[in-house]
Write a structure and sequence with these properties.
about 20% helix, two-stranded antiparallel sheet, alpha+beta, 3 helices, binds zinc ion
Length: about 130
């Protein structure tokens, strides 16, 4: 049974300049400036989860729990878009992102440690030339 208010979400982030960011136990990684898409899911309280991400991105303070928190707490990182999807869609969306032309994987395993569909990551670097659509 799917709980009320469960679902998947996609966040589009903008990193104003290149930065080396420590992502919890995954390690330290060099992130290029530009846009990123992150796909996550919440088993409950989807809207609260997304609001929490947004708060962290805006205030740069709060507990760092998910991999994405480490990126979003960086001073040069801003959330520019958030989209909600049906529960269980996260890996489908992730796979579709992976197939897009020009999309690259900045960090293997990012946000995908408990992913059962075998995604290499749930964070993608969007191509330079165009803004995230869809
Ligand atoms: Zn996945």
């Amino acid at each position: 049974m799917v709980a009320e208010d469960s679902g998947a979400y996609r966040l589009t982030l903008q990193l104003d300049q290149a930065a080396t960011i420590t992502v919890g136990r995954l390690g330290s990684f060099a992130f290029k400036a530009g846009q990123y898409a992150y796909i996550g899911s919440a088993k409950r309280a989807l809207s609260k989860r997304v609001a929490r991400h947004q708060r962290l991105a805006a205030k740069k303070s709060g507990k760092l729990h998910w991999h994405i928190d480490y990126l979003m707490s960086h001073p040069d990182c801003h959330m520019i878009k958030q989209e909600l999807f049906e529960a269980g869609k996260e890996c489908e969306i992730s796979a579709a992102m992976a197939r897009r032309r020009g999309v690259t994987i900045p960090v293997e395993g990012f946000g995908a440690t408990d992913c059962r569909a075998g995604c290499k990551t749930h964070l993608y670097k969007l191509p330079e030339r165009k803004m995230a659509t869809e």
